[in-house]
Structures are given as structure tokens and as C-alpha cells.
């Protein structure tokens, strides 16, 4: 959740570290615009998940996420 220049994890409520306008820890930001064939048609959902909550969330998946190592950081 973004609020007054701050970002919070929507799962645990943790405030994500930002110093001088720069994120000092990573966060997953999900933006979804729901469309046809959805009960949420015409709505847009946005949320943030801190790394700790992300790690806990993916442990609940029936099919694991695909993880690859990236050699270059863009």
C-alpha cells in the first residue's frame, strides 16, 4: 500500500525502507486490471508484499515458482 510517500506491505503492514526517495529494500508490487469473464471486471487491484511475506506466501503454492539466477542487474 502506498500512502503519503510511504510503502507498506499489505500482508503484515511493515513499512518498507525508503531513504531520500530510494527504496532500501525490495518489495513485490502487483497491479492487476481485471477484465472480461471476471467478477471483478473494470476494477484495478494494487498491492505490495515485503520479501519475508513473499517467501511465506510462495511456500503455500501447490506448484512452486520458477527461480532463475540473473547475471545482470538492470
From TrEMBL:
Protein name (database record): Ribosomal-protein-alanine N-acetyltransferase
Native species: Velocimicrobium porci
Amino acid at each position: 500500500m502506498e500512502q503519503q510517500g510511504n510503502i507498506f506491505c499489505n500482508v503484515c503492514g511493515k513499512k518498507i525502507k525508503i531513504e531520500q526517495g530510494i527504496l532500501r529494500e525490495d518489495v513485490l508490487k502487483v497491479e492487476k486490471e481485471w477484465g472480461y469473464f471476471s467478477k471483478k471486471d473494470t476494477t484495478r487491484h494494487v498491492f505490495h508484499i515485503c520479501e519475508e511475506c513473499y517467501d511465506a506466501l510462495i511456500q503455500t503454492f501447490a506448484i512452486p515458482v520458477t527461480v532463475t539466477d540473473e547475471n545482470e542487474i538492470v
